[in-house]
Each structure stands twice: as C-alpha cells, then as structure tokens.
Amino acid sequence: MNIKPQKPKNSADLKKLLQQYNHVLTPQNRQFINELIQNLDAGGDKNALQDLARRMQQATNQGKK
Description:
- The protein has three helices and no strands.
- The chain is mainly α.
- Helix 1 (about 10-20) packs antiparallel against helix 2.
C-alpha cells in the first residue's frame, strides 16, 4: 500500500515532513527544506523564496544530467 503524504501548507507541516523523511533525504535536500522553513518562519520574503526556488530547480536539472 502506497500512502502519499499530504502537501505541506506551512512551515509546521514542512518540519513534520523533514522529521519523518530526514533519513532518506540528501544533505542538499535537507538544506533546501531547512532554508525554506527558516524563510517562511521569517515572513516569507518573496525574493529569497524565488532565489531558493531557482537554486532548487538548478539542482534538479543537474541531477538529471
């Protein structure tokens, strides 16, 4: 049975997912999630979130090569 986790809606949800899946995440993905949590807890600066999204996308594209 494959149960899909609910999509996170806030930093508290992300913290729970991070705790639950920490052992299977790469260090880079853990860092991205921690950075996202910190940014959201600080108010969610749009420019910082866009920069994080760009870096996450770049990491994804590099992993596909």
